[in-house]
Amino acid sequence: MSRVPALVAMHADLAAALIRAAARVYGPVEDVEVLSNEGLSRDGLEEAIDQRVSGWTDGGLVFTDLWGGSCHVCGASAARGRGHIVVLSGLNLPTLLDYLHNRDHLGVEELADRLLQKGRESIRLQRAPAE
Fold first, then answer.
1. Splitting the chain (131 residues) into consecutive groups of 10 residues, what average pLDDT does each group show?
2. Which of 2, 23, 59, 124 gives the lowest tally of CB atoms within 10 Å of its CB?
3. How would you classify the pairing of strands 85-89 and 32-36?
């Protein structure tokens, strides 16, 4: 099975910051593209995403920060008609780390489902005990 490719497309410098944080925990992060929407029009962002995913013959994952935001909308548009390209919004560090650990031995669809669950499980509440 080949490695599932990924593009992290987010607002401002959030994508680069997440990759830097992941590298501190995981080690060097290779084969993950990073894209900021900063300074890009909607058309420019969609074109930039389209260029990055155009070579994905067996699919891949586009990670975005915000459902319905420009990165998500443009990612979904670029993925349309391209087979197994999945857009996953709301990326957080635990989900990114899980992707890095599992991208070499799971297929796109199975990995996407796993990451969705991981993202949900990683958001928790801890309340102070009542005094």
1. 94 98 97 97 96 93 97 94 91 98 97 97 92 78
2. 124
3. unpaired
Q: For the beta carbon of residue 131, count every other beta carbon within 10 angstroms.
A: 3
Rg for the chain, CA atoms, rounded = 15
Cα separation, 120 vs 118, in Å, equals 5
pTM: 0.93
- What whole-number distance in Å separates Cα of residue 107 and Cα of residue 111? 6
Is the distance from CB of 71 to CB of 48 less than 8 angstroms? no
If one counts every other C-beta atom within 10 angstroms of the C-beta of residue 21, the result is 14
Task: List the domains of the chain with CATH numbers.
Answer: 6-122 (3.40.50.510)
Instruction: Find residue 32's DSSP bridge partners.
Output: 6
